[in-house]
Amino acid sequence: MSKNNKKLTTSWGAPVGDNQNSMTAGSRGPTLIQDVHLLEKLAHFNRERVPERVVHAKGAGAHGYFEVTNDLTKYTKANFLSEVGKRTPLFIRFSTVAGENGSADTVRDPRGFAVKFYTEEGNYDIVGNNTPVFFIRDAIKFPDFIHTQKRHPQTHLKNPNAVWDFWSLSPESLHQVTILMSDRGIPATLRHMHGYGSHTFKWVNADGDGVWVKYHFRTEQGVKNITEEVGTRIAGENPDYHTEDLFNAIDKGDFPKWKLYVQIMPLEDANTYKFDPFDVTKVWSQKDYPLIEVGNMVLNRNPENYFAEVEQATFSPGTLVPGIDVSPDKMLQGRLFAYADAHRYRVGANHNSLPINRPKNEVNTYQRDGQMRVDNNGGGSVYYEPNSLGGPKESPEDKQAAYPVSGVAENVAYDHNDHYTQAGDLYRLLSEEERTRLVQNIVGAMKPVESDEIKLRQIGHFYKADKEYGTRIAEALGLSVPQEVK
């Protein structure tokens, strides 16, 4: 493997001291806006593809509603969750992650699961995936990770060397890699998969008391997956298979349904739980924090125009309503900036005024001008604040709940670095047939990797998660588990 002494630099030539950890206030953050290297990476990354989405380019969408079935007002003051039976209109977009707009639906890839609730207090977005975890846990690594999933700049081909080199050097990815390479890596349809908010969020009730939450959308159709061979065959026969299936199901009245649950953790548990609850590469045990029912999601209407609705739909985990706040999750903190910035670049500064994104309630801002201004631009009304002319004013009762932060401003990793226990637990939960398919999928994906050093480094991670897991993959690749790992 080639070695060099070149220093990584910013675009203005300054050396980068830490490219693995963003700068936070203490070990849990929040992330500091003074980390100009992080901001440059995220902002530049959002502008690397024109005009389709950098990630989640291929997608399908539908309209529907959410109905509350359980009273959880003791945990959150969010208006759309305020009473059993209340319905809120919504729009959802499903997507693959790495492929281009014309790529096949049935590839092995996580699926985006983004839901926009049109509440009476403004829009609320849950922007998740069909997996409860992710490959990385700090947004500063996101541009590099997605580069490995894209095409080689010289050959314009997918590059398994880059994929496995990055994963083998980022052991926090092991849990998600195990899920991706398992049967769940290729859902049979978009209707037959779960969805997750993935990140930890904060609910706050009317008294200002908070809890940490995780979202789980459980499919009412049952989980169904397809094998690598079937996925490959369908990709050649009908690359739009998932898109077509969703449209046809709704069109004939077979409305897909999911039941939303949350896990709820008391705020103080975050300091003592066995895994850092803000690390998106980890899950909370459902034995420790059981699923609590929230309500039902039903999709019952197809878009009238794909571009106007599915393609121009914009989602951000920073699109919040009173009663729902964010957490110190470092990956989430980066997404708060990156997603909205991507929409301002891709769709325009006024993307929220487009019909698919426009809130149902009245919008009162002092924002003016910019691309895609489709209303009267505020007419001749007052355009600054504070003012004495009767313009809209802030409402202190809607401020986000305060929480303490402390620590030294520095580039720092999460305190907990056990990347193997949960991946090993998942492997041991699988049946023998599921384990065999998992190993076959991983071996098939790793065989094209040219470097044995990369293969052995990754085998070491599998072995640390479970000895059988690593040994089976090593033997299938004609290699031995590195002695230093045993």
UniProtKB/TrEMBL annotation:
Swiss-Prot/TrEMBL keywords: Heme, Hydrogen peroxide, Iron, Metal-binding, Oxidoreductase, Peroxidase
Domain (Catalase core): residue spans on this chain: 9-393
Matching Gene3D superfamilies: Catalase core domain (2.40.180.10)
Region feature Disordered, mapped onto this chain: 1-29, 371-399
Record's keyword annotation contains Secreted: no
Pfam families, A to Z: Catalase, Catalase-rel
Catalysed reaction equations from the record: 2 H2O2 = O2 + 2 H2O
E.C. no: 1.11.1.6
Biased composition (Polar residues): 7-25
GO MF terms held by the record: catalase activity
Protein family according to the UniProt entry: Belongs to the catalase family.
Protein name: Catalase
Protein species of origin: Bacillus seohaeanensis
